[in-house]
Design brief:
By secondary structure, this protein is mostly helical. The protein is built from six helices and three strands; from the N terminus they run ααβααββαα. It has helices at residues 3-19, 22-33, 38-43, 49-61, 80-110, 112-115; strands at residues 36-37, 65-70, 73-78. Strands 1-3-2 form a three-stranded antiparallel sheet. β2 (65-70) and β3 (73-78) form a beta hairpin. α1 runs antiparallel to α4 and α2 crosses α4. The chain is elongated and about 70 Å long.
């Protein structure tokens, strides 16, 4: 693997780690729909402000959201391109899986035993 490949894999790890948590997925949905202050997000969850702040930080480190400051408030927005890249990774994995299924189907079709099922007598 080249250095760039390691960076891509590290980013993928961070994204999937961030998305592995239900609360973080919900926060991401909210900020993709529109910019939210971290305090407004915190009011939506039955957890401390600090806990929500930590979830936002995980999403930000993964590159799935961006934050900007306006006065004393931190405003979070979803990064649509980052979410698309997660979708692309999943599409690549699906293509590998579909290729394996197609090869299995080809092997079954080529197997002479599968084209002449044995008859059973009862």
């Amino acid at each position: 693997m080249t250095h760039g490949d390691h960076q891509d894999e590290d980013r993928a790890d961070a994204m999937f780690h961030a998305l592995a948590d239900r609360t973080r997925r919900d926060i991401l949905r909210r900020v993709l729909a529109g910019e939210h202050s971290v305090s407004a997000l915190a009011a939506s969850y039955d957890m401390s402000f600090a806990a929500v702040q930590k979830h936002v930080a995980v999403l930000e480190r993964a590159g799935l959201i961006t934050k900007r400051r306006t006065g004393r408030e931190a405003l979070a927005s979803g990064d649509v391109e980052a979410v698309r890249s997660v979708g692309s990774m999943l599409t690549e994995l699906e293509a590998v899986w579909r290729g394996r299924i197609a090869r299995i189907d080809d092997l079954i079709a080529q197997d002479p035993a599968s084209s002449h099922p044995t008859e059973r007598t009862e």
